[in-house]
Structure formats: C-alpha cells, structure tokens
Amino acid sequence: MIRNEEIPFEQLRVVDSDGKMVGIMSKSEAINFARSKGLDLILVAPTAQPPVARVLDYGKYKYELSKREQKAKKNQKVIEVKEMKFRPVINEHDYQTKVKHIRRFLEDGNKVKVTVMFRGREMAFMDKGKEILNRIVNDVSDLGVVEKEAKVEGRDMIMVLKPKNL
C-alpha cells in the first residue's frame, strides 16, 4: 500500500473520502488536501492515466481490509490429500476396512491418494496392483472419480481420487 510521500507520481486524480472526484492535482497539493482533513493519501490505481489516489484514514482502511480477508479465509474449504496404502497381497477384510476409510475421506470432501506398494519379487505382479486399483474405483464410484490415473513411481503404483462434487 503506497501512501503520502511514498507515491512516485507528480500528477494524481484525487478522490475524496466520500467517493467524490476532487480533480487532478499535484502530489504536494493532494497530500496537503488530505492532511487538512486529518487523513492519508493512498494510491489505489497506479496504472490509470493519471494515477488515482484516494483520501482515506489509513489505519481504518487497513483494518477493514484485514477483516475482509479474514472473512474470505473463513468461508474457504481446505481440501486435504489423504493417503491409503495397499499391498498386492491383501486379505478381504483388510481391503474392505481400507475402502471404508477411503469412502469416509471422500464424503468429507478430501482427495485420496491410493498407493499399492510392491516389495522384492512383487514387482513382477504389477497387474495385481492394477486390479486392486480398478476394484477400488468401482467400489467408490458413487462418491469419487479418478483425478490422476494409476502410474508407477519407483516401487509404488499411485492413483488419486477426488470427490464427485469437486
């Protein structure tokens, strides 16, 4: 926020604290005008011809700006990426438990990174990992869709799911 003597322009279009156009003035006249009202001169549109400066109470303006930012931050939803790890050889109960967690994450509006980890000779059975990921997609198709298709990174096969409403 550029104000008062920090303003680099010599000619400014000045707007009063009520929003009324005062006119084009030199920088020193504009600063004297603002000080006579007990306020600050703040540059609001530096790219305009001539640049626009407004007469405001800087402290109050900064406070209102921070309040507006806090309100915007309060209303936004932070999406987390949760991770669920599988192995190519997994028991049915363990699979169902992990799928239940994935469903809960998607219901909460979070993305889910599904990883199938391979160790040693399991690398030869990549198709088994692909089957597991396809089965997961089918089991959660009512809540989520695939954001990133399955791909192999090192010894892991990774896929990202996102909620349907995103």
TrEMBL record:
GO terms for biological process: ribosome disassembly. It holds the Pfam family IF3_N. GO terms for molecular function: ribosome binding; translation initiation factor activity. IF-3 binds to the 30S ribosomal subunit and shifts the equilibrium between 70S ribosomes and their 50S and 30S subunits in favor of the free subunits, thus enhancing the availability of 30S subunits on which protein synthesis initiation begins. Residues 4-72 form the Translation initiation factor 3 N-terminal domain. Keywords: Cytoplasm, Initiation factor, Protein biosynthesis. This is Translation initiation factor IF-3. The keyword Isomerase does not apply. Gene3D superfamilies: Translation initiation factor 3 (IF-3), C-terminal domain (3.30.110.10), Translation initiation factor 3 (IF-3), N-terminal domain (3.10.20.80). Residues 79-164 form the Translation initiation factor 3 C-terminal domain. It comes from the Bacteria. PANTHER family: TRANSLATION INITIATION FACTOR IF-3, TRANSLATION INITIATION FACTOR IF-3, MITOCHONDRIAL.
